[in-house]
């Protein structure tokens, strides 16, 4: 089972997510001046769910905050600049979203970002552990497959680790899968739901097309191309931006969608499901993305098709598809 979301005591778990502040979420964005941070902050400022938005970065936050603060929505906005202002940015937060760090350039993998972003995420999450240990922490910074374990270790070191409150934001993979399936089938993307499990890099991204709603079927060659496109969609954007960064606008949309789902669940809404990369006992991997019924439990996936398993990184000698199918995904 994957974190306390997976345990059967639904009511108790719902309490662990609950906040007294209905539609009153205090949200911090760390890395708020960046390509993702700015549009993400705009979407959060535009939401009636958010009452306080605190924006942190090592550059430009006074300007970003001043700009956003003129928008006629209820969330107050304040900018914080540099490490000495970080504690004040975090105090009292319900949710912290972290898109701080460097993005990919053409030819780079997400793992190439590790050295720089690992340090940034470790520093920022240490401040979260100290100044808002109860907040939900949503990590966007890549490589997510590594920045989540790093965050867990930082929280453990500070003695405030709660795996239910640390999320790797993989929502963009789901958003892309929904969009690409809808394009191919002539459907409304808003009505397409594709679970995407595993991790957030290349072949660790496993779109479970067989569990798409509505049900969709593809010829094998089209399915192969579709899965490959979802797995490499980030690289598609990196190449198209030709050195000017990676996905920012679609990521801001996806990050905001995840935060809104989280806040909905914190406000007691039932049946909110999002995939996220979290501490997991669903497979041999200590961290894994599966659908989460937020506030209650991990949703178990049904059987993967052999093709889906084969397209994943798990088709190695050690972790063959049959084993994955048997142990991990049979309900
Ligand atoms: N999870 C996903 O699906 C996904 C998708 C796209 C991008 N990303 C990742 O998100 C991250 C940010 O991407 P971007 O395009 O916004 O990059 P960006 O360079 O445009 O912005 C990053 C921001 O982080 C800030 N920053 C750097 N060091 C910091 C520190 N120590 N404290 C606070 N802020 C700091 C920078 O000043 C900058 O404003 C990258 O790691 C990228 O790979 C993740």
TrEMBL record:
It is an enzyme of class 1 (oxidoreductase). Its EC number is 1.1.1.37. The active site is at residue 200. One of its GO terms (molecular function) is L-malate dehydrogenase (NAD+) activity. Keywords: NAD, Oxidoreductase, Tricarboxylic acid cycle. Substrate binds at residues 104, 110, 142, 176. It catalyses: (S)-malate + NAD(+) = oxaloacetate + NADH + H(+). It comes from the Eukaryota. Residues 170-302 form the Lactate/malate dehydrogenase C-terminal domain. NAD(+) binds at residues 31-37, 57, 117, 140-142, 251. InterPro entries: L-lactate/malate_DH, Lactate/malate_DH_C, Lactate/malate_DH_N, Lactate_DH/Glyco_Ohase_4_C, Malate_DH_AS, Malate_DH_type1, NAD(P)-bd_dom_sf. Pfam families: Ldh_1_C, Ldh_1_N. Residues 26-168 form the Lactate/malate dehydrogenase N-terminal domain. Belongs to the LDH/MDH superfamily. MDH type 1 family. Homodimer. This is Malate dehydrogenase. It comes from Equus caballus.
């Amino acid at each position: 089972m994957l974190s306390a979301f997976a345990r059967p005591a639904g009511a108790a778990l719902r309490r662990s997510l609950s906040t007294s502040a209905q539609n009153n979420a205090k949200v911090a964005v760390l890395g708020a001046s960046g390509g993702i941070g700015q549009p993400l902050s705009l979407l959060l400022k535009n939401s009636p769910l958010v009452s306080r938005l605190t924006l942190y970065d090592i550059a430009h936050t006074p300007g970003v905050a001043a700009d956003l603060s003129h928008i006629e929505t209820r969330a107050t906005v304040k900018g914080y600049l540099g490490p000495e202002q970080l504690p004040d940015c975090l105090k009292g937060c319900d949710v912290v979203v972290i898109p701080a760090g460097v993005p990919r350039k053409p030819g780079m993998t997400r793992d190439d970002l590790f050295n720089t972003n690992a340090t940034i995420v470790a520093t920022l999450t240490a401040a979260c552990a100290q100044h808002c240990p109860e907040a939900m922490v949503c990590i966007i910074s890549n490589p997510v497959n590594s920045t989540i374990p790093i965050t867990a270790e930082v929280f453990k070191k500070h003695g405030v680790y709660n795996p239910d409150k640390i999320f790797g934001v993989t929502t963009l993979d789901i958003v892309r899968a929904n969009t690409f399936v809808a394009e191919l089938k002539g459907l409304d993307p808003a009505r397409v739901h594709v679970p995407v499990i595993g991790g957030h890099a290349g072949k660790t991204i496993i779109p479970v097309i067989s569990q798409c709603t509505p049900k969709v079927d593809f010829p094998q060659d089209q399915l192969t191309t579709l899965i490959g496109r979802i797995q490499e969609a980030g690289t598609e954007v990196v190449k198209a931006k030709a050195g000017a960064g990676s996905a920012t606008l679609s990521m801001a949309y996806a990050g905001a969608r995840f935060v809104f789902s989280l806040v909905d669940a914190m406000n007691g809404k039932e049946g909110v499901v999002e995939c996220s990369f979290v501490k997991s006992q669903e497979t041999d991997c200590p961290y894994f993305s599966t659908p989460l019924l937020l506030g209650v439990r991990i949703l178990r996936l049904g059987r993967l098709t052999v093709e889906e398993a084969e397209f994943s990184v798990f088709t190695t000698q050690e972790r063959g598809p049959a084993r994955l199918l048997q142990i991990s995904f049979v309900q």
